[in-house]
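New to this. Comment on this protein:
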Amino acid sequence: MSYMDMISNENYSQISCNKFINIMSALYSEGDFSKQPTKMLWGQPGVGKSQAVQQFANILSEKTGKKTNVKTVSLLLMNPIDLRGIPAKSKNERNEDVAKWLSPDIFKLDPSDDVINILFLDEISAAPPSVQAAAYQICLDKRIGEHVLPTNTIVICAGNRVSDKAVAFKMPKPLSNRLTHFEIIADLDSWRSWAYQHNINDSIIAFITWRPDYLNKFDPSNDDVAFPTPRSWELVNTYMQFGFEEMFECIAGTVGLATAIELKSFIDLSVTLPTFSDIIANKAELPANNDPAVMYAISSMITSNVVQNGSTLKLKEKNNLFKYIGSFKHDEYILLTLQDIIKNCPEFNKYLLKNKDTIKFIKQFRNDLTN
């Protein structure tokens, strides 16, 4: 197995998606980044590597005021000529016949000063050694032969770990030594932030908050084909738009039957919850059942609605909303809900600061919220 030896990746940092995004934003939001080394993201299938790159692109655009273009290239589907280009007959300055390499699509990037290109070389560890070798110059010099990437280009690579039992060729040492390596791991806080910003069903968010062990049950040691991962929960969200009961078999086929049954029990428990409309109209009461699952469901439902519709709320409706949150019987649910709202809907910060002295629970938790 010398040609197909599995790679061993155990000597670099494990970080969450949020941590990776923060690091990248600090590195690339100011100044010339043309000499930054290429970053390599390792991680299990479905952990959120691609989403982390897209989130980084969105934040970089906000911080720089520039348009970010993410171009994803799956190296698993390529051969060396796809990167190098193909030769074609041409003429030099002396009108002599010469071979000129036609520029491959990978190099068709916008060089404008108001644009940042992100070239995402995905599945690099699954690409054959010949393709990985062709990627040397891209990672080191942002070029192959005569083809040069624009100076406004960031290169990021990604691939699966050896422990995932995914297809992976041994990465040549000269290539690996040109990269800065990170392992992306499933992280509840990172996933919840992403889920609120991408309109993931609040029942899914609440269920994962209540049972964080269900965020990621990837286990390369068994042969299950359906299991929960951050990516599979995104797929479940698409099915739930058509109704949970109607799509139960699809959901079970995505995250596994046992997980789907647990989610169904959770949803059945939360069907009697007050609506967001009743809460902001001051017509809602706390459920008599103070079960943690119920409270997590209420908290996630409130945050999801605030993220989606918070800008349209009137002052009286905001007052009613936070009065209701303040009536929670346990402090942990108050703090959880406030932190989620502040993190995912920054426009509410001004409201909270203006009203912290008139709303008792805001004042009570002010220090916790700012830490």
